[in-house]
Specification:
It contains five helices and no strands. The chain is mainly alpha-helical. The chain folds into two domains: 1-58, no CATH class; 59-89.
Length: 89
């Protein structure tokens, strides 16, 4: 998906907001977003995303839930002892 908009001469990424929206949707990768916006660091991009009130590209909730369920048995052994030491337990 990132290659489509990045290599398509018909794509119209003219304004910074269009570029930020494309990055937020995962249509372009971080390197292309940085170049098109003239930014030097990821931190600058994250600030621009926050200023535009856009979400960072990422994994959908279904995938996150699947990953959490998969990790729970592994983490449980490490979290249980620490949880038991909390005040009121």
């Amino acid at each position: 998906m990132a290659d489509d908009i990045a290599t398509n001469p018909q794509s119209t990424l003219f304004s910074p907001l269009q570029i930020l929206r494309a990055y937020s949707k995962g249509e372009i990768d971080i390197d292309l977003a940085l170049v098109k916006l003239g930014l030097d660091h990821q931190r600058q991009l994250m600030i621009a995303m926050a200023d535009a009130e856009l979400s960072l590209p990422g994994t959908d909730d279904t995938e996150l839930n699947r990953q959490a369920k998969e990790a729970e048995p592994i983490l449980r052994a490490y979290l249980k002892p620490a949880f038991a030491k909390l005040p009121g337990r």
